[in-house]
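Action item from last week, closing it out:
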Amino acid sequence: MVLFFTLPPSTIDYPYILINANKPETGIRYIVQHRGIIEVVIIDSGIEIFRNPSIKDYPGGAETWIRRLVVLRDRVKSIAPHARIYVTCPDYCDDYHHKALWIDENITNIERTVLNILKCVDWYRDVDWLIPIQGWNKRPPTLIWSLEYLEQLGVLKDYSYLAVANLCVEPVIRIIRHGLAYVRTWLNNHGYRDHRIHVFGMKISALKQTIDYINSFDSTAWTRPVSTRLWKVLNWSAKSEEERTLFFCEYMLRLARQRVMIPLKVFEQCLEQVPRIRTVLTSRYRTKAEEIEKVVSEVTKDLETLLKKE
C-alpha cells in the first residue's frame, strides 16, 4: 500500500498531510479545520530554500532549525493529538546546484546531512524522525553511502521510516528508478526489509516504474493541471478554491489508476463537489464555458465509474 502526502484544498477531508516548515501556517489552518480526520502528518524541513545558491544553511543554523521543527511538531500535536507526526531531519541537497552545499570534497551534502541526523536523534529521542537519505546529483549509487553511514552509527536500528531526498527535481525517470532500486535492494540485503521508503516530490509520471519500491511519497503538483483535458481548458496554476478542488480531484483519479491508496471518502467528496464547480467556472470563464462543461462532465463520470467499481 502506497500513501500520498500533500496539503489538499480546504474543501476536501484528507488524512495524509504534508506541512512545510518554511510556511507552516497554511498547513496548520488545514489541520485545525480537518483535525478529526487527520491520521498522519509529515513535517518537511523546507529544503527548497537552497534553490537560492547563495544560501548555504538553514536560517539560524541547523541546530536552530531542528528546534524550530520540534516546536512545530508540538504545535501540530496539540491540535491533532491522535495523529502520527513524522518530522524530517534537516538535510542538504545536491540536485538544485551541484556541490553548492559541500564544505569540501570530504564533507559533502551527504556527510552534512548525516551530522544533522545525529543531532536530531540524540537531542530529541521522543520525536518520530523521518530520516533523509541523501546522495549526489544524478549519482544514484551515492545513496548507498548515506545508508552505510546510518547503519554504522546505529540509526537504522531505531528509525525505520526513511526518505529518499535527492529526487524531487530529477527529470529523468530512469535515474529516479535506479536510485529507489538501489535503496530498496540495499535495505532488503542488510536485514532492513521492513523499513519504509518515502520519496519527496516525486512526479506522477515516475510512479509506474517505482511504485513497487516505495511506501509513500508527497507532492503539491496537483495545483497545476495534471491531465491533457484540464490543460487544454485551464492551463494555469489553480487560482481559486473551485479550481483547486477540480485539479485535486483529477489528480486523485490519476493516483488511483497507479495503485496509490486514496480513501474512498475522498472520491465521494469529489463526486459531491465537482458538479457544483461547473456553474462557478462557466460563469467566470464565459468564453470557455462549453469546454469547461465537457471537462467537468468527464471528471464526474470518471468519479462515478471508480466508485461503482469499489
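Closing note: Strands lie at 3-5, 16-20, 40-44, 84-88, 128-133, 161-164, 196-199, 216-218.
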